[in-house]
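tool_log.txt
---
The assistant was asked to compare two proteins side by side. It first ran the structure predictor on the initial sequence, then on the second. Raw inputs and outputs are pasted verbatim so the downstream comparison step can read them without reformatting.
(1)
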Amino acid sequence: MTKINLQVIDPNTTYIDEDAEIGKGTTIYPNTTILGKTVIGANCEIGPNSVIQDSKIGNKCVIFYSVIKNSHIGDRSDVGPFAHLRDKANVGKNTHIGNFVEIIRSKIEDNSKIGHVSYIGDTTVGSNVNIGAGTIVANYNGQVKNKTYIEDGVFIGANTVLVAPVKVNQGAKTGAGAVVLEDVPKNTLVVGIPAIEKKKLP
């Protein structure tokens, strides 16, 4: 474990496995557990009340009140509070994963935001995507887990349900409360239950 310029606020409530690597300038806040072969970059803020296991965290990241297992977080990204990333979640750089967000077996590209109370499973999310509060990827049909693709520059409205397998193409938008059963064309707004095309976007 790298110890140079590492600050552990309360060693009595902090556990760090001997196999973990932590970069200089990183601060570990109370009630934090770092397990397995975790690698944490430089100048991060980890905790309080966080668990990180067998994961890689980039430089200048903030992990707050969250659980991260077998996952990767890119540089300058922030996670939490109360987020759960697991089973090869892969989050890019400059990305925001907010409160009560669960991500599993999914890739989130750079500069995207998933702010509030969402489930993203078996999904590829492009760059510069905004996923609104309450968004759910319905990836399980009772037999298999299906894939969802959200391309660059997409805006997902609050309380959208994406019923996999489905693809939201570049620059598209979904209205609040939309239930998306079919692929959304590029630069198109869809609304309703089930979602239908409302208009083309510039």
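(2)
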Amino acid sequence: MLIVYNPTAGRRRAHRLWRVLDVMAANGVRLELAETRHAGHARELAREAAARGAGLVVAAGGDGTIAEVANGLNGSGCRLGVVPLGTANVLAHELDLPFDPRGVAAALAFGRTRTIWPGVATGAAGARVFVQMLGAGFDAQVVRHLPLALKRALGRGAYVVQSVRELARYEFGQIRVCLDGVDTQAGTVIVAKGHFYGGCYTLAPGASPSDRGFTVALFDRAGPFSAMAFGAALPLNLIPRMPGLRLIRAHEIAIASASVPTQTDGDAAGSGPLVVHDAARPIEIVVG
């Protein structure tokens, strides 16, 4: 079993990984630990492991690390395991994965899986797999400029601080988007695989990462006051009830606006234009 560990994700929670390893080693599980050294390294490690015939690769980190490992495993048939160590851990909450070390170790050892259908975003920088969501607009601007040191120091609070900074300098405007051939526009676009966003906060009720297709959240209003209103509604789980939000099911999404910032699973993903569709094959993720 290869465990791909991102040492910069959730440093304060690294003890959780060591306790998981202790439990598994005590039960005779053979482990190989590989630390990531740069952006994209988790993808490379996972791809190499899958090419060697590995049956299970475990992502120990946050949603970005999980997405990188999923990119490396995409189409291989290798199972994906998770040790949630990140700031938001959206996918872990989405799938109700265990967080306590003994629960994580038991889940990885037992090996029961659930099928998820990742999304693929294809643009000028190539194709990028995501497992939870893609954002275009203000939230991606926040992710793009969020200092790693601030994220390490404040955790989720760093996103609040950076959002306040970006309110004054982001050029709010309408984003052109095409959903299954139908043109529309919105101030911010979030393409969701699951129903959670930013942790365990509800964005798209009824959405499931096991289903093909996406729930697209279109925030019609653009501007700092609208961004602040939606930011305040998020921790109260009120976003689905907010006026100016459309939730639309779609299978192919084109972000047509050039230069609009984008992010996937909490990592900066360049700029539009880009096209989003289902991955060619699902991924089996270990849930215990």
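---
observation on (2): The domain at 2-111 is CATH 3.40.50.10330 (Rossmann fold). The chain has two domains: 2-111, 120-280.
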